[in-house]
Here is the input.
Amino acid sequence: MNSQGLMRLLSAALVADSYLECLGTDTPSLLPRVDDTLLALGNGTNSFDLRVFGNTSSDYVTWDASASQLIFTGAASLSINGVVVNNGVEVVTTTNVIAASESGTTYFLNAAGGFTSTLPAPAAGLFFRFVVKTAPTTAYVITTTSGADLMYGMMLERAGTAGVAGAARDTFNFVANQAIIGDWVEFISDGTNWYYHGMVDVAVGNTVAAT
Here is the structure.
């Protein structure tokens, strides 16, 4: 069955309130609706790839049956409870105002002169990771939107002892001439606050503040 035939069959299934069953044959069949509408493509032995497009031809999601993998291309993304799931990596060299849609991204901080990264407003499930790629001679600053005192957490230093803890803070700093390559911190939100943890080489490698 070609793609046009499949689309006609899908349309008929929706209109007839039926479900489509395609079990490794070239002649899918319409079956009466049993519970919720179901589209089954393949049977584990004979399987099919599936591609669904967004608003443009460059944004789409592909189910690759041979790899058992769901692949997102272009601006296509997965959103759970309004939070976009991302596994991106970005090397940053200048001021970075982070969008909620970037949740899941790891930012490699890569300018000795430092810069500021601004977190989005809290939303449940948002998550970001920051890693020092170039040791700063001017601080790397991570701050909340509008300077709200919403940061809570603590850091560990390399020796395993307690680093800097913070409560109701709005600014996190990787300190100039103290933070080194590989120092890192993660931020996660519960929808109200930002909670952080991470590790630095020396306790003075980071500070937090309420400005």
Summary: The longest helix spans residues 3-15.
